[in-house]
Structures are given as C-alpha cells and as structure tokens.
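REQUEST ID: PR-0412
SUBMITTED BY: lab tech R.K.
PRIORITY: routine
TASK: structure prediction, single protein chain
INPUT:
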Amino acid sequence: MKKLEKKHKMKKWIKINTLILLLLTFWSWNTIKKSSNEIADERQRVEIVTDYGTMIIELYNETPLHRDNFVKLVKEGTYDSLLFHRVIENFMIQGGDPDSRHAKAGDNLGEGDLPYKVEAEFNPTLFHKRGALGAARDGNLQRASSAVQFYIVQGKILNDSLLEVSEKRINGWLAEHFAKNDPTNKSLLDSIKKTSELQNEERNIFFNDSLKKVTANYTNYERYTIPESHRNVYKTIGGTPHLDQNYTVFGELIEGFEVLDSIAAVKTANGDRPITDVRILSARVLERD
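STATUS: complete
OUTPUT:
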C-alpha cells in the first residue's frame, strides 16, 4: 500500500514539474520575443518626404548622441526644404547642408554646418549596409560628425576580393587617424599647419609626403577585420564597407528603398550635385504606437 502511495506521489510530482518546466519555457520564449520586439518598437522613427517620394528611417539607440541630435533638428524643422546636394550612384546620397536651402544652380555645396560637432560613436555592430544612415564629417582629428549633414547608403553588392580591398582601405584610414593623434608626430602636424597658413606650397608638400610615409608604416593600433556576418550582408544586400569604423552609423532606412535608388540615379554636375534639385520637402518624427 505504501509503495503504491509513494509511486502515485512520484507520478504527481513528475507531472507538476513537467508543467512548471513547460510554463517556464513558454514564459522565457515570450519574454525573449517581447524583448526583441520592444527593442524595435523603442527605436525612434523619422519620415523624410522628398521630391521622389517618402523614406522612413529608424534611429539606433546604440548611438544616443547622434539619435538625440537628429531628432532635435527634425523637430525644429532644420531639414525642411534642404537639398540632397551630393549624389553618387552605387555609393550614397548626402543632404543636410544648411546653405542648400536657397542655393542657386551651380553653387558649390557641402561646406555648410551648424556651430558644433557631434562626438563620434563607433559601434562594431553597426556598419554601412545598404540603407544605413551615417553622419558626414570633415577631416578633424577626433572624427567628430557634422552637426547636421547626413548620408544614406545605396552601395553595391561586393565579392570577397572587393571586401579585401575595402578592409585594407579601412585600416589605411585607421592608421592615418592614430598616426595623426600620436604625440610623437605632433611636430610634423604643426609643420603642415604652419606651411599651409604661410601658403608655402613646396614645404607643405614635403611635410605631407613625410606624414604619408609615417602613416604607411604605422602599426600602433588595432587592425580591423570585417566580421563574417557583415561580409555576408555586403555580399547579398550590399553597402559601402570602406566607411566602417571611420564614419558614425546611427540609423537605417526601413521603408522607401525605391526612393533611395531613384535619387541615386539622377544626373549630376560638378561636385556630384544633382542637375535638377532633389529637395527634402519635410521631415518629421513619427509617434510610437
């Protein structure tokens, strides 16, 4: 009798534990699924209406400085009526120059900005795949971003050979960056700046050639290898990998790829400016559901 009771209790205990295990599994799966969806839902979205149609961009939370700055500018109407002033097919479309709002045909654009920069936010998980939103910048030593100018990657599909070329180019830029920021090369940079200010072209060329030699042999930095997961994207969807880890990526296009392609295909003149203006009619932050 006792053996039967013990056996019955054991079966009951197994059933209860099995039920608990199933409930925990179900709860865990839904938590993971919910967390994944919440991450996507929490990303701020921006609608950009252009002459060629509407694009919707999702901003990354991993780059909060760029995200918050972009949202602020959009809410202030900064981008309304500005141009996509630089367009290169199979590469990217660039906009946001404040000088483009009232630019006339033939005006050189691309130098306009706001009186501040945004600190670089390089993240190894964010890269220049097709549709990536990046921040333009000048050649400042900190690689800080323009406060207002941005680009959207069109790119192209690459093979392994082209990816190897891109990887070398990335590391060339990284070597240049770290060489310029190395205190042992400060006197060389000072000489370049001084000869430039004095408009001494011959000496300036000499010092710049010296810097190129230093950069070519510079190894005091961690070399970058394009991750396999990124390589697979570049080989199937496309992008512009040579910009990785040198320009901040802070969002991605989620709707309107046909608009991106249409703008990228327009005819351009000097400075890669479209012959017929491509204008941002409006930009607005979309409310979360």
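NOTES: The chain is about 40% helix and 15% strand.
REVIEWED BY: pending
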